[in-house]
Amino acid sequence: MEKSVKYDVVIVGAGPAGAFLGYSLACHGVKVLIIDRKIFPRYKPCGGGLTRRALSELPFDISQVVEDYTFTANMLFQNKLLFTRTFDQPIIGMVMRDRFDQFLVEKAVSKGVVFQDDTDFKSLSGNPGDLWVETSRGTVNARVIAGADGVNSQVAKALGLVIGTHVMAAIEGEVYFQDSDLIEKYKGAVHFDFGVISEGYGWVFPKKDHLSMGLVTLSGRLKNWRAGFESYLNLKQLNTYADIKPLKGHLVPFRSNKRNLFATPGGLIVGDASGFTDPLTGEGIFYALKGAHIASCVILDCLESGYDGMTEFSALIKKAFLGDLIRANRLSFLLYKFPRVSVSVLKAFGEVLCENQVEVIAGEQTYGELYNKVFNPLKVLSIMFKR
Ligand SMILES: Cc1cc2nc3c(=O)[nH]c(=O)nc-3n(C[C@H](O)[C@H](O)[C@H](O)COP(=O)(O)OP(=O)(O)OC[C@H]3O[C@@H](n4cnc5c(N)ncnc54)[C@H](O)[C@@H]3O)c2cc1C
User: What is the pLDDT of residues 223-240, one digit of tens each?
Assistant: First the structure.
């Protein structure tokens, strides 16, 4: 890497947060370098479910990397259908993260971003506006640094930001079958399975030639996760698989502490690095993309009018996400901490909850509105009396 080149912004991490931030800045003529420690395209354990609200954050068409559009949501308890609902518009676009992330990086590069993969972030020195970013391939100069380096962000630490979050533990396997009819059977629908793991759920997401299956738990610990995954396959009668590639675990940060700060005059952090994901579902890509959009506006302002304004980012991102996620946290607490109660709740309110949840992931209502609508005592009584 050329030490003599000065970048306006160096972004560490080329997941959705980093690549989309790079794209958004480069669209305004900002000189950006994105580095990632992995060789791209790279596998990332992820359901690859892009909700309608995530899709609407992107200003370009991504259909070439969408493997399936799902219109039907199925909710099950121990593989018994609680209810099913088909919507007029797709709820989720299914992607494989290696292709999707590579596609976003190429979009960024097409706008002038320099991308360097296989490059690890090492350390940060200098002053706001004149930073030295040490990487495994040399040191570069930048005016601003952005950490999009996921959970346990090294850039957050280098900026002196202490990010308090809880973590969910999740595993994901790409499951292949000889019998292509079996995959066809799952096309167009998402399956959320409750009662298959404590404090969480299992999912089956259809892809072009296989099923992405996984388990997530808010407890942050997955004991005997391979055995747990096998029993999930058995329960779903999907144990006739031909191959699983790869079965990997990963952490999902959530419940970002309300005292967290996400920026200093030197730089900011976005995506999983900031700990914003949906505590009900583990959805993180929407928050990564929306956070990147807000970050790009703040960075553009600061490149023009001074770096002290960078700290505005913390307030803006909290305003965008925190209030709503506090409601979502309460819902996730009710759903996952009291499994017996939550089955009754799902049986009684599953359909109402599903309809409302789809409105949330479509970006048509907030968790605050869902909470008030569904858990409002008058509403609860009216639903009970209708039954
Ligand atoms: C099993 C599982 C299933 C999930 N399913 C979904 C889903 O269906 N839908 C959804 O919306 N969300 C899902 N999520 C959450 C989603 O994957 C994340 O929220 C999302 O990837 C966050 O994007 P990001 O760009 O912030 O970070 P990441 O995608 O994690 O990207 C961070 C990048 O930074 C790089 N990096 C890290 N450290 C360094 C370093 N020191 N130097 C250089 N590069 C570095 C990494 O290599 C990586 O490429 C799931 C998560 C898991 C674990």
Answer: 889 999 999 999 999 999
- Residue 158 vs residues 131, 132, 254: alpha-carbon distances, Å: 12, 12, 21
Report the run of H or E that residue 156 belongs to, with start and end: helix 154-158
Which atom of ligand 1 has the smallest separation from the CA of 18?
A: 25
Are 180 and 293 within one domain? Answer: no
pLDDT digits (tens, 9 = 90+) for 133-161: 999 999 999 999 999 999 999 999 999 99
Q: Is 27 domain-assigned? A: yes
pTM, entire model: 0.95
Separation of CA 386 and ligand 1 centre (Å) = 43
Instruction: Identify the CATH number of the domain in which residue 277 sits.
Output: 3.50.50.60
CA atoms 271, 292, 329, 375: torsion sign: negative
* Ligand 1 surroundings by CB, under 6 angstroms: 12-18, 35-38, 44-49, 54, 120-121, 148-150, 154, 170, 172, 214, 250, 252, 271-273, 277, 282-286, 288
Q: Domain of residue 199: give its range.
A: 68-93+167-252
Beta bridge partners of 121: 135
Q: Which of 35, 44, 55, 190 to mutate to test the pocket of ligand 1 (most atoms within 8 A of CB)?
A: 44
CA-based nearest residue to 173, from 339, 43, 277: 43
Q: At which residue do the structure tokens 């629908």 appear?
A: 189
152's tokens: 């346990």
Nearest to 24, CA basis, from 82, 94, 111:
111
Q: What does pLDDT average to over the chain?
A: 92
